[in-house]
Amino acid sequence: MVDFDNVNLKDFKIENIPDSGFYIRDFISEKEEQELLNKVYSAPKPKWVTLKNRRLQNWGGKPTERGMIAEPLPSWLKDSIFSKFSQLEIFNNCSKFKLPNHCLINEYESGQGIMPHEDGPFYYPTVATVSLNSYTILDLYKRRTEEKLNLEQNVTNFIPEFSLLLEPRSLLVLQDDLYKTYLHGIEERKSDNLSQKNIMNLSDDVNSDAILERSTRVSLTYRVVEKVMKVGIFKKNT
């Protein structure tokens, strides 16, 4: 495990990619990982939203153009995570918040993925993702104007500029250009040949020719929603 008292985020910068990406292996322990998985899967059934290629849970509120009616994040999403976020000062540049107020939980079964996309204007331009239970490959695509306008039509023609290996219990932080001008996505596949990807964060102990088999992956994506509404504004005057 990393000694978070003696490091800062810059120590984990991914080299030779646009600004700024940071990757920390073993960000949480196996025990913490299992505790988080237990909480995810014990959430009330209505908390799950099932989509075509994955299912998800929203915690902290639902972001909209008008703003988000904030709900407190449960302690289990914060206890083993937020102290490390604070020590690494991941969200310290956010003008209103120093810690996330929203967490999106995605479950990807083997063979599932998500098309290239951007996180959008609702969020402060920093995203921190914790991976649980399985690895995945995250592909990064340089966005062109015509691709943004016709994303659905052009997605099959996208070629990743580079990729990142996200291992179980790891943390990935994307900021700056990687957040603002790149799309990110996960191909729908059950295994990955690492030699066929331009992976920029392979550790020395990972075989670059390995073929990895995916299992069910759960991701915790932490962000700051800056526009927050108070519940009271919806109450009628009496």
TrEMBL record:
It is found in: Nucleus. Keywords: Dioxygenase, Iron, Metal-binding, Nucleus, Oxidoreductase. It comes from the Eukaryota. It holds the Pfam family 2OG-FeII_Oxy_2. GO terms for cellular component: nucleus. Its main location: nucleus. SUPFAM superfamilies: Clavaminate synthase-like. Residues 99-226 form the Fe2OG dioxygenase domain. InterPro entries: AlkB-like, AlkB-like_sf, ALKBH6, Oxoglu/Fe-dep_dioxygenase_dom. GO terms for molecular function: dioxygenase activity; metal ion binding. Belongs to the alkB family. This is Fe2OG dioxygenase domain-containing protein.
